[in-house]
Design a protein that fits this description.
One of its GO terms (molecular function) is catalytic activity, acting on a protein. Belongs to the class-II aminoacyl-tRNA synthetase family. HisZ subfamily. It is found in: Cytoplasm. The chain is of the alpha+beta class and about 350 residues long. The protein has 12 helices and 14 strands. The chain has helices spanning about 10-15, 40-50, 95-110, 120-130, 135-150, 150-160, 165-175, 185-190, 195-215, 275-280, 300-315, 330-335, and strands at about 5, 25, 30-35, 60-65, 80-90, 115-120, 180, 220-225, 235-240, 250-255, 270-275, 295, 320-325, 340-345. The strands form 3 sheets. The chain has an 8-stranded mixed beta sheet, sandwiched between helices. A 3-stranded antiparallel beta sheet has the order 1-3-2. β2 (about 25) and β3 (about 30-35) form a beta hairpin. The longest helix is centred in the middle third of the chain and has 20 residues, at about 195-215.
Length: about 350
């Protein structure tokens, strides 16, 4: 487990969380600390220091509370839990597919019934923008921000305001149509001839092929409008959406530059589940809990009763034991509280 408080100049700056959402405080020496806002940056620090002699790749998992400062009217908790994994030291499509497949299985295990994983790649958009707007750095950042905010109307308007040719404008608008299944691979290749864009889509489509081998591709769609935090992610990114919940339930991707900030230049990929949201959302889907078993015994039947309780607990049953003074003691009331009652006398 990493510390709850980290140094702002290292973990705080490296975090994907915006500076405005960090809880900051000063220690007795005047050094700025932050409450951890995610687990990826602290884990990157640990991998670069305590685990620097471990052979790669390294697979790590976590479940911990994190802290973020939200607007009061946003109605979101400042402290919440994240559950996730990090795979460090492998830049292959198989590594990216492994974390996506694990995210899918995690959502299933958590009881999320219907969901989709939207998968994109920041390199594709970077390549396309470099191809069309190579000398318009500010405009590139504006378009990226609009896609990050899902402002497709603003994205289209900004494209119309650009001083570019109609064919270039059509290429940029074509990004909005690149959402679907495996067929998006060919469509994306046709849209851009830039090497970065082509290499990125080839990587993404190899990830899809591995997900097919895992047998989970029916939960995945390619969405090249989804770029994640483009200042943090360097390759494949993904988000999970549950139909019955109406908000993202997981997110992740490749962040090959993060560990370099801690002195170890190795690739990494991973994801985090939004644990609180998932638990709140699936409450209504969880069936009624099985009632516990009551083991009643008098002094003469204590040994047999406790032995029976031990057997049931090993079977995964919830068991309550009680010493009886009278064989009929509370029997009627107990019948409503327990699914099974056994008496040893």
């Amino acid at each position: 487990m990493t510390p709850t408080m980290e140094f702002y100049d290292t973990v705080g700056v490296a975090s994907s969380t915006s500076d405005q959402k960090l809880f900051k405080l000063l220690n007795h020496r005047g050094t700025t600390l932050v409450l951890r806002s995610d687990m990826t940056s602290p884990i990157a620090r640990v991998v670069s220091s305590l685990l620097k002699e471990e052979p790669l790749p390294i697979r790590l998992s976590y479940h911990a509370n994190v802290f973020r400062a939200f607007e009061e009217e946003a109605g979101r908790e400042a402290e919440f839990f994240q559950t996730g994994v990090e795979l460090v030291g492998d830049d292959s499509p198989d590594a990216d597919a492994e974390v996506v497949a694990l995210a899918i299985e995690s959502l299933k295990a958590a009881g999320v019934a219907t969901f989709k994983i939207a998968m994109g790649h920041v390199g594709f958009l970077n390549g396309l923008l470099e191809e069309v707007l190579s000398s318009h750095d500010h405009e590139q950042q504006v378009l990226k921000k609009q896609l990050l905010d899902r402002d497709y109307v603003g994205f289209r308007k900004a494209i119309q305001d650009l001083d570019i040719s109609d064919s270039q404008r059509m290429k940029l608008e074509g990004v909005l149509r690149l959402r679907g299944g495996k067929e998006i691979c060919d469509q994306a290749i046709e849209l851009s001839g830039h090497n970065l864009a082509r290499n990125s889509i080839n990587h993404l489509c190899k990830v899809w092929e591995v997900l097919e081998a895992y047998g989970v591709s029916e939960h995945v769609l390619i969405d090249l409008t989804m770029i994640g935090d483009f200042s943090y992610y360097t390759g494949m990114t993904f988000e999970g959406y549950a139909a019955e919940l109406g908000f993202p339930v997981c997110s992740g991707g490749r962040y090959d530059n993060l560990l370099r900030q801690f002195g170890r230049d190795v690739p990494a990929t991973g994801f985090a589940l939004k644990t609180n949201r998932i638990l709140d959302g699936v409450k209504g889907n969880v069936g009624e809990a099985e009632l516990p078993v009551l083991i009643r015994y008098n002094p003469a039947g204590r040994k047999k009763g406790l032995a029976r309780a031990g057997v049931l607990r090993k079977e995964g049953k919830s068991v309550v034991t009680r010493l009886l003074q009278d064989e009929s003691e509370g029997l009627m009331a107990d019948s409503e509280l327990y699914g099974q009652i056994e008496t040893f006398i």
